[in-house]
């Protein structure tokens, strides 16, 4: 049941991204083009998503103590703004601004078989592995210094 619900939620997300036009990199890039063909629709899509999430989480946490298929809710608890957070945000933002895709918008766009989407996706996966490698490498260096 968990797998089916995960699929349905992903399908709804993909349909929303596709219907809003956010799987189209030109539409996303036009949001960042303030002095050209500026398109504010991304702002409304993000605003709608943040609003639904804000009220949805409030309702969910009041109504349920635990999720249906997990032992506890997994939500961020840290409020620390550190180099990892800032660096990751910068890389995400620059990549989004250059390619016109965020990871969530690129996944439904893979079905178009556009080579640009696939190049972005491969770069995304490579970046994930590079980040994991760097985190392990840094952790091992810190551990060696501590001993």
UniProtKB/TrEMBL annotation:
Entry-linked Pfam families: DUF6691 (PF20398)
Database matches in InterPro entries: DUF6691
Domain of life: Bacteria
Keywords: Membrane, Transmembrane, Transmembrane helix
Listed transmembrane segments: 41-60, 81-110, 116-135
The protein's name in its UniProt record: Sulphur transport domain-containing protein
């Amino acid at each position: 049941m968990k797998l089916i619900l995960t699929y349905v939620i992903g399908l709804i997300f993909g349909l929303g991204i596709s219907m809003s036009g956010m799987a189209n990199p030109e539409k996303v890039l036009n949001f960042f083009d303030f002095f050209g063909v500026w398109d504010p629709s991304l702002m409304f899509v993000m605003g709608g998503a943040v609003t639904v999430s804000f009220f949805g989480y409030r309702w969910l946490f009041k109504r349920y103590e635990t999720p249906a298929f997990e032992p506890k809710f997994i939500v961020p608890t840290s409020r620390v703004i550190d180099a990892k957070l800032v660096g990751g945000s910068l890389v995400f933002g620059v990549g989004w601004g250059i390619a016109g895709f965020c990871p969530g918008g690129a996944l439904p766009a893979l079905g178009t078989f556009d080579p640009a989407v696939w190049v972005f996706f491969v770069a995304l996966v490579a970046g994930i592995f590079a980040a994991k490698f760097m985190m392990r490498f840094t952790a091992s260096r810190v551990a060696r210094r501590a001993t």
